[in-house]
Amino acid sequence: MTLPPLDAERARDLVGRFSGLPVLVVGDVMLDRFIVGHVARISPEAPVPIVRFESEYVRLGGAANVANNIAMLGGRAALVGLVGADAAAAQIRTQLAAAGVSADGLVEDRARPTTEKVRVVTERNQQVARIDYERDADAGGDVERAIVAQVTRLARDVKALLVSDYLKGTITRAVVEALLHRAGHRGASDGSAKALAERTPLIVDPKIPHLAYYAGATLVTPNHYEAELATHLRVRTDDEARQAARDFRTRTQCEAVLITRGEHGMWLSEARAGGSIPAVAREVSDVTGAGDTVVATLALALAAGATMAEAAVLANQAAGIVVGKFGPGTVSREELLSALTTS
To answer: CA-CA distance, 148 to 202, in Å (whole number)?
Structure first.
């Protein structure tokens, strides 16, 4: 079953409502550094290319890129995550300020470096090597308590909550429990229609080792590799995606699952509906960060009053735009509106 396309007028109305919607992003904050150069020969010292330096630039990555996407789409993003006491953390704060994202929720952990990925690439955007600066042990003790305190403080008046889990230490069971409690998915709900309507959507970009943490979330968005790992099912066809999404939803005890399948689009599974969403046909430059754009769009769409299917269709359209960009990119509200007008 293929989900019906979203009416253009309805789509534009939903995107128009993104303006100023407050969303809290909690997750693993990263800095992506790109060293760009020219390759003309192989090193005589080892069979590796010699890269002659030409330029260098940085971009927000991980949960910081999710928050940046929310801001670019017109929303108002607050961010909770871990950073070290180093130059990379200072650059992240500078980049967030430029993007209009609040960095007040960043928690400094002097025992770890800020997660930074340094990519050496050619002028044709071909990656030669990557160096990761990170310590991926889960936060604990005072650091974990500080993260939970920031979640509690910043989640009070938001319209959507978002977990961006990259297994770099920020997302622990206690952190997710705090989000679920704020969302009304645990402890605060009596199961009545009124209580259900008052829940705040909680969207999770997951990692398999933490599946047990996400029980009760509104929507979890595994890619097809993660869906295969979690369900032990092959995901190649629509029928296989349907079964894997159902099994994933049962295992995680979440309300809905959206499997992202690259060039095959997406598959949505929820109690009331489900089906495939064909990929938007565009030239693919780089899929890095596409998942960040997907969850940012989903969060804003649900906060704007979209159904789960409508939110998934909008997220699919946004993903089709961002994969045409190199590195962890973003999609602006204007780009999304333009794509909805011409599609």
So the answer is: 16
- The position carrying tokens 């080892």 is 46
Which residues does the annotation mark as catalytic?
292
Q: Contact, 235 vs 227, CB < 8 A?
A: yes
Q: Is 250 helix (H, G, I), strand (E, B) or coil?
A: helix
Q: Which amino acid is at 254?
A: C
| CB proximity list for 179: less than 8 A, separation 6 or greater | 26, 151, 155, 161, 163, 202
- In the chain, domain spans: 8-29+62-105+136-342
How far apart are alpha carbons 265 and 313 in whole angstroms? 10
Q: Which residues contact 163 (CB under 8 A, 6 or more apart)?
A: 26, 27, 171, 176, 179, 202, 203, 204, 205, 206, 214, 217
Pairing mode, if any, of strands 219-220 and 256-260?
A: parallel
As a whole number, mean pLDDT of residues 233-256 equals 94
**Is the predicted pLDDT of residue 151 greater than 80, yes or no?**
yes
| Strand positions, DSSP E, the chain | 22-27, 29-42, 49-62, 76-83, 102-108, 115-122, 127-133, 160-164, 202-205, 219-220, 256-260, 266-270, 274-277
Q: Which of 203, 210, 241 lies closest to 224, judged by CA?
A: 241
Beta pairing, strands 202-205 & 115-122: unpaired
Distance (Å, rounded) from C-alpha 179 to C-alpha 156? 10
Give the pLDDT score at 88: 98
Other Cβ atoms closer than 10 A to 337: 16
Output 101 or 185, whichever has higher pLDDT: 101
Q: Output the CATH code of domain 8-29+62-105+136-342.
A: 3.40.1190.20
> Which residues 6+ apart lie within 8 Å of 106 measured at CB?
29, 79, 80, 81, 82, 83, 89, 92, 93
